[in-house]
Amino acid sequence: MTEALMQNEDFTDGLLDFIARSPTPFHAVQSMAELLEHAGFQRLTETEQWDVSRGRYFVTRNDSSIVAFALNRPLTEHGIHMIGAHTDSPCLKVKPNGAVTANRYLQLGVEVYGGALLNPWFDRDLSLAGRVSYLNEDQQVAHRLIDWQQAIAVIPSLAIHLDREANDQHAINKQLHLPPILMPLPESGSAPDFPALLLEMVNDQLATEHDAGAKAVKVLDYELSFYDVQQPAVIGLNDDFIAAARLDNLLSCYTGLMALLDHDGEHNALLVCNDHEEVGSVSTAGAQGNFLQSVLARLCGDEQGMSRTMASSFMISADNAHAVHPNFVDRHEPGHGPLINAGPVIKVNANQRYATNSETGALFRHWCATVDVPVQSFVVRSDMACGSTIGPITANQLGVRTVDIGVPTFAMHSIRELAGVKDAFYLYTVLRHYFG
């Protein structure tokens, strides 16, 4: 086995493990923070004074967004090479008073988060994870991440016998058809108290951790998402594909993180992974918030320093791209159909739904050529709507040159997506070179 192949396999194994440990944006940021701290990055908080002219640091916001950076040279003279991605994925989120009963079954009401493909959520083994906020014995508000890990719920399909047109037309009512079933109710007695279940889970977790904090006495709020417990896997006749939930966009988060951890060159380097991209990025933790801008302002010192730094900087917005589906070739623009395992994709849109221009696209092509990474192009058909990314938002807020790129993907926004093993490593290779 060649050294390059061994590196690719190690990288893929790490990616699968990262996705498995990151069922929500909270868990993804927790996993990234652990890897950064293990590599010697120092954790900062937004409430403290920073003195970070040189070194390796990271800071989080809302437990669901993260900025990590390595500074080696003066920013105003040399700028900073940045990579942007997002931690969130389309999913089903539990409503605040989610517990409902119907026909003697306990269910949880859910909201659809983002532009999810809903049909694949039926008949899957679902678990539940997220953040719970609670009052502890010291009368303090605290927060914990929880994850049931095992399958605790399912959304059964209606039998074909009761919906003979299901294969021809199947409309899903988000309110009526999506609440997952957790358990049948006993003939006598009331339904389990869902907040009480959360409280018990938090206290069980606290009991197993040294110096974890005072016991929880009341659940105040929560942000919980259902997810498929099927593990990420390498599949295909020749192990060509990565099949997993949340490839959009944990794959980009992981490749950017690995490139930063391997960074030992002279460039200043920064990775930002924002929450809430799938719903428009309008939040304190989203790309339309001021998280990245606030961090850069601290590093640059004043407005003139910020302007000089951004003029010398570059942003790669990494978010998955649509691979040409062989069963739906007509949905793609001729001559611009990305193939899986044929390299990362430069995404272009004349109406600036992507931030790429001829200068930034040319630079990315050059970086790919320098490390022998193939590169592809994507543009949406003129008669179809185009999606967007954090790229145009960041370019607008910072005035920084930006290119939108991503790994070709099938079944984007499904509960289980498909990407190429080679493409993930290709992306890592060029991002590592870009950081220097």
From TrEMBL:
<dbReference type="GO" id="GO:0006508">
    <property type="term" value="P:proteolysis"/>
</dbReference>
<dbReference type="InterPro" id="IPR023358">
    <property type="entry name" value="Peptidase_M18_dom2"/>
</dbReference>
<keyword id="KW-0378">Hydrolase</keyword>
<dbReference type="GO" id="GO:0008237">
    <property type="term" value="F:metallopeptidase activity"/>
</dbReference>
<keyword id="KW-0479">Metal-binding</keyword>
<keyword id="KW-0645">Protease</keyword>
<dbReference type="Pfam" id="PF02127">
    <property type="entry name" value="Peptidase_M18"/>
</dbReference>
<keyword id="KW-0482">Metalloprotease</keyword>
<dbReference type="GO" id="GO:0005737">
    <property type="term" value="C:cytoplasm"/>
</dbReference>
<dbReference type="InterPro" id="IPR001948">
    <property type="entry name" value="Peptidase_M18"/>
</dbReference>
<protein>
    <recommendedName>
        <fullName>M18 family aminopeptidase</fullName>
        <ecNumber>3.4.11.-</ecNumber>
    </recommendedName>
</protein>
<dbReference type="GO" id="GO:0008270">
    <property type="term" value="F:zinc ion binding"/>
</dbReference>
<keyword id="KW-0862">Zinc</keyword>
<dbReference type="GO" id="GO:0004177">
    <property type="term" value="F:aminopeptidase activity"/>
</dbReference>
<keyword id="KW-0031">Aminopeptidase</keyword>
<comment type="similarity">
    <text>Belongs to the peptidase M18 family.</text>
</comment>
